[in-house]
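Human:
Take a look at this sequence-structure pair and walk me through the tokens.
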Amino acid sequence: MIHLPASEIAASAISSAASATGAQPRAMHDGGRGRRRCTECRSYYEPAASAATEQRVCGPACRKARQRELARGRRAKAVDDYRIDERLRQQKCREKRKEAGGCHALPSAPKYADIKRKVLDSWDRATAASRASLERRLPGIVRAIVRSDGTAQAPVEAPSRASLGS
């Protein structure tokens, strides 16, 4: 048999009597300033004096979770209204993005001038050489141009699909 102090026996008897009758704990009767349980994480907290009777959550993270849950419930009750509101919200967002300059990044700096210079240099060397020399050097020239096209110079900005052309 377990022996409990008289104060613990009295406290457990009061709390079990209150729960059996459906009454609120003592903390609720003194203006709501006692310890309360958070509706989200179920931990105990002391409500703020300014919101003693209305506060339901312990802090900002639980408040955000509760607001999300309540909003989800409201949307579920009025699905058609929610869809209309969501459609309008998306339209506004798309218009704002369009005014800000579109959704794609600016095209990367063109490498046309660099490639043109390499081809012309190669052409000048090739025309100075004989036809046999040109045929022998041509595969190496093409490999050098193709290899350097993607790796010689890092783009300033990430390339976009718009800069690739059609």
Notes: Residues 26-30 have pLDDT under 50 and may be disordered. The helical segments are 6-21, 26-29, 60-77, 79-99, 112-128, 131-151, 161-164.
